[in-house]
Amino acid sequence: MAIETTASGAMTADDLLKHWQGHRRLTRKVIEAFPEDKLFQFSLGGMRPFAEMAAEFIRMAVPIVNGVSTGKWEEFKGPKPATKAELLQLWDAQTVQLNEKFPKIPQHRFREMDKAFGQWETSGLGTILYAVDNEIHHRGQGYVYLRALGITPPNFWER
Amino acid sequence: MAIETTASGAMTADDLLKHWQGHRRLTRKVIEAFPEDKLFQFSLGGMRPFAEMAAEFIRMAVPIVNGVSTGKWEEFKGPKPATKAELLQLWDAQTVQLNEKFPKIPQHRFREMDKAFGQWETSGLGTILYAVDNEIHHRGQGYVYLRALGITPPNFWER
Q1: A27: domain range?
Q2: Is B1 part of any domain?
Q3: What pTM value is reported for the model?
Q4: Burial of B12 (0-12, 13-18, 19+ CB in 10 A)
Q5: Which of B13, B46, B140 is the closest to A147 by Cβ?
Q6: Beta carbons of A55 and A2 less than 8 angstroms apart
Q7: Residue of B17, B127, B136, B138 to mutate when probing chain A, most A C-beta within 10 A
Q8: Per-residue model confidence as pLDDT tens digits over B43-99
Q9: Does residue B118 lie within any of the structural domains?
Q10: Looking at the complex, does the CB of residue B136 fall below 8 Å from at least one CB of chain A?
């Protein structure tokens, strides 16, 4: 796949990182908004508790940036967070790592096709967008959980 | 604001349109998955029924592309859809309009700051991303409604 080098670039790599980190700040607020027990236990419609969804975001974020950057796809290592504090600690560690690693993605890797984790064939851009969209999607579900618990979620537009 | 014309363009305008239309195809499936009465009446946690959310996506999509394109911000005109068929008809009309209008957005308007609908100050890109993200966010909530109704939603990754 060719590198896009013309004036048709609507969104730069830096825009995409800032966009993602803005969403990640909002997701962090949603994690914080849950009472500890509800974070790990409450759900609706037979779905997962929000802590499971947030752990999924963590399993995806840095491993995807590593994979897009290097072509090496390695699963997230480490135990699943068992408390809100552990979850937030992992979250914050990834915030720093994303800021370090994302700008080092070689430009051609955004358009290059690859098999993410040996399974999902799409461009680097497609894989990163999938991670961001997956986070927005499940966080929206977390909003329903919070509302059902009588808790006002953070404003969607405040990042 | 300057036009981005370097090799740092990770996502082109065409990528962004395709990405959005992929999401819109999925949202259309979610609208279809609701039984007619539940689409307009069912909700959880005191939130809006999914038909209200879908009507919001319609009020945003083409008016935002028009505004980013021309700098003229005009509210969506027309009555609120009252049936699933009306909703899907408006949806499909906007699918065609977006494909026509989006490629005509002048390149510099993606980065130029503007006040969307006289209220929301951000770049054209920011406003379009907001519309896409808002759709993903509320559609995720529609997934919880469907699950709570015992209906299996369409797969998130199938666009």
Answers
A1: 13-148
A2: no
A3: 0.94
A4: buried
A5: B46
A6: no
A7: B136
A8: 999 999 999 999 999 999 999 999 999 999 999 998 899 999 999 999 999 999 999
A9: yes
A10: yes
